[in-house]
Design a protein that fits this description.
Layout lengths: L3 H15 L4 E6 L10 H5 L6 E7 L2 E6 L3 E6 L5 E6 L8 E7 L3 E6 L6 E6 L24 H8 L6 H5 L10 H11 L12 H20 L41 E5 L2 E5 L6
Antiparallel strand pairs: 1-6, 2-3, 3-4, 4-8, 5-7, 6-7, 9-10
Bound molecules: zinc ion (ZN).
């Protein structure tokens, strides 16, 4: 499933292809993804100039003048690609926007859990109302040790589950939560409320560091993520614990990486490096 680094990678890759361009034709090839597609509203975004391409949480916003925007969430298996308009359509290319430069933007999604919608922003450069109250982005100053400490205080749930909860912080998915806890030396099953201020500060820094590294590597491809040119994310090569149960820890070289399930998600850690 695409997480924040993958969506950031896609957003940054789309930007130079789309800003200043216009859609000249939209073809909608399925009636619904996660929700029915509001085709008439989507067609209204054919014509005006694209002024910005931005990300908030795991949503891509393609913004037009007059506060209109195309909102895309990749769901579980969604990808977007920029290809020559004449290129043959693939089976799960559900929406196709032809651009005024002879190429097209295609939304591809085998499982159809994604979202594509036309929205109105509260202000130019702003967000649609339903995204306005999201918790902080992990790569902004608002996601600080003090903020994370406030979220952890009194909580008995595991720190990993809390990190992955989109009500506390957006976009830290399963892979990145495991890797950040390893970098910070904290066992994923520790109750959040029992972490010391030093541990919380180390964890907030580790979350930022892991996400920065992942974005620099173009995200992580485990099964179905691809960049807008079809490329794979290279962060998979830098994973220290995720998916490595039974292997020797790459840092201490003594313990074996263990796997446990927290809130229904596979979780990986080193019993020696993390306490
Ligand atoms: Zn270790």
């Amino acid at each position: 499933m695409p997480e924040l680094p993958e969506v950031e990678t896609v957003t940054a890759a789309l930007r130079p292809h789309l800003v200043g361009r216009r859609f000249v034709r939209l073809t909608v090839r399925v009636p619904k993804l996660r929700e029915p597609l509001a085709v008439e509203r989507l067609q209204a975004l054919v014509g005006p100039e694209i002024v910005a391409v931005r990300r908030r949480a795991k949503y891509i916003l393609i913004e037009f003048a007059d506060r209109q925007a195309l909102l895309i969430h990749l769901g579980m298996t969604g990808t977007v690609r920029i290809v020559p308009a004449a290129e043959t359509l693939e089976k799960h290319d559900h929406l196709v926007w032809e651009l005024d430069d002879g190429r097209s933007l295609r939304y591809h999604d085998p499982r159809k859990f994604g979202l594509v919608a036309a929205v109105t922003l509260e202000t130019p450069g702003g967000l649609p109302p339903f995204l306005a109250d999201l918790p902080p982005e992990p790569l902004t100053a608002a996601f600080s040790a003090a903020y994370l400490a406030g979220q952890c205080r009194g909580r008995r749930r595991s720190i990993k589950s809390l990190l992955m909860d989109n009500r506390q912080v957006v976009g830290v998915g399963n892979i990145y939560a495991s890797e950040a806890l390893f970098l910070a030396g904290i066992r994923p099953d520790r109750p959040a409320g029992e972490l010391s201020p030093e541990e919380i500060a180390a964890l907030a820094a580790a979350v930022k560091e892991i996400l920065r590294r992942a974005i620099a590597a173009g995200g992580t491809t485990i099964s179905d993520f691809a960049g807008v040119d079809g490329s794979e994310g290279r962060f998979v090569r830098q994973l220290q614990v995720y998916g490595r149960a039974g292997e020797i820890c790459p840092v201490c070289r003594q313990a074996v990486i263990e796997k446990l399930t927290l809130s229904g998600r596979s979780t990986f850690f080193c019993p020696r490096c993390q306490s």
